[in-house]
Amino acid sequence: MPQNASAEYATKSLLKVPKITLYFWIAKLVSTALGEATSDYLVFHTNPYAAVLGCGLLFSVALVLQVLSDRYVAQYYWFAVIMVSIFGTQIADVTHVVLGVPYLLSTALFFVTLIGILILWKRSEGTLSIHSVHTRRREIFYWSTIVATFALGTAAGDMTASSLQLGYLQSGVLFTILFSVPVIAYLMFDLNEIAAFWIAYILTRPIGASFADWTDKPIQVGGLGLGTGPVSAFLGCAMLLLLALIVKTRIDDPNRELTN
């Protein structure tokens, strides 16, 4: 390591989350779809209570590995994202199916929860930028926000598809259009980078979930009827290939220049 780089490494805290690249958004969309399909498969093809408990345990393990690492490690980070995707879906589903909370109400509750977390994060740290996630407290705020966005996105996607009767494909198209709004606003109209990121991040969840539901749900309810098992397996393989590329190239490593 060059001397100047070594000095910078010694004085600068290493970031814990990836750079925002095209690969980040692709991995995020694949992981959200994977979480939806896998959650549905586990709930309908295994003991649902054991599935939720097991996924909750794996989510805890993934989060511990991520938080205890001293820098961004792609394997830990994306393992945590995948488990948040699966477990977050289950949280939203349990809220509706087991507790009987309507999708409209659960969407509103998760939205209020998300806003509350963001307000506390902003007041505590002075910034919501993911480029500053290098302390334990900021990382706790970050992952709390991530869990809330997944629960909110799942509930919102189910609300449009079921309660508003748009169907899975139409919901996916709707949220894709909404996703493009902050992207265009950021690129063309100087929308605040932090606001653009979090709005887009929230919307990736219902996009992935809606298209996953469209492919795996039965034809009778507006899906393609491919089944949750095959769709989950395909998305799992796609995620593994993408993760292998990310790990090998370190293309999204925010500390790459400091640790080479």
Q: What is the arithmetic mean of pLDDT? A: 86
Percent range of helical residues: over 70%
Radius of gyration: 19 Å
Sketch the major β-sheet: none
Number of strands: 0
Estimated structural class:
mainly alpha
How many DSSP helices?
Answer: 10
Which overall shape is indicated by the principal axes computed on the Cα atoms? globular
Which runs of at least 5 residues are low in confidence (pLDDT < 50)?
1-11
Strand content: under 5%
Secondary-structure element pattern, one letter each: HHHHHHHHHH
Task: Please report the distance between the alpha carbons of the first and last residues.
Answer: 6 Å
Overview of the molecule:
The chain is mainly alpha-helical and 260 residues long. Helices cover 77% and strands 0% of the residues. α2 runs antiparallel to α3 and α6 (136-163) packs across α7 (168-189). The protein is globular, with a radius of gyration of 19 Å. 41% of the residues are buried.
